[in-house]
Amino acid sequence: TYKVSYLISAYPETMNNVALQIKGCKNLNNTEQNVFVSYQPFRIDKQNPVVSNIQYSNTLINDALAGNQLSITLKFNEKCNTSIHPVLQFVNQANIGNTLILNSSASGWTNDTTFKAVYNVIDNNEIVDSIGINVVNANDLADNTQLTYDVLNALNIDTRNAEILNVTVNDSLLTISDIGGNALLISLSFDKDMNQTINPVLNFSNGTLLGTSLTLNSANTSWQNANTCQVSFNLQNVVTEEFNIGVILTGLKDVSGNSPLSTIIDSMFSIDTKRPSIIASMGSTPFIADNNVGSGTFSIDLTYNEKDMWSERLFFTVGAKWMRDKIQGKNKP
Which has the higher per-residue pLDDT, 11 or 188? Predict the structure, then answer.
């Protein structure tokens, strides 16, 4: 038995087709051995595996992804030991461990060079930018440990919903005198930049108003800046009596694709284009006779369908003649 030992250098190299030749040994009779050749008796692999590519199912984690999953796919430059899973760590000052939760049962090697990590996404109403990823712990078939892989600014989280900072209307009560264009102007301001490619659309708590009493004035509806929009409506000549009308936000998104936190604003304005009507009248006497002349008076009590009626003058027609009765300072419900 003869033993030959070699020092192994630290030089990173891979040799798969090693051939071993042994010759020159002689016996006691000085007879030289037959040349011995062995093909691939062993392999040399002193290369550490590296991540050659990384792909993400999403780089922006928003409300649409919440309740679903994020997948990160790692591609290695050589075959790896699939019984050992690489470890991925998120690098950021914020703690996102409650936002991205590893789904171990859905994660794993899809082949001997590709690993997919799957995370359940939880909505924690937060903004976290520039999340880096650190990958360690993968081993190749020769049990070489991978070189640490770091990537910066890989992911961003924005699951915080925009809040309404201010909402105003130009007129809290629309009446007959307001019928026409730009009768109602609603201005909304948010605490986040909004997606200005989406035209602001509003509806009302009374779902029959839009398209009948109120129609959108597109020419005067726009984003004033990244945070504020103005929506204009025309008031049509339609008899309407609706009070404490709420506004419903439809389709608005911030720049990350999240809807506003509140989508309903109660009791913003009222519409009253219904003219008051007399629902009952009663004379002080059923007949005006000769004995009333000079000595008596005649009055008519009027009942209207609305409260707080008043007038400087009321006009009555009796037959073909006009009578005017001036009533001042008298409100009669």
Answer: 188
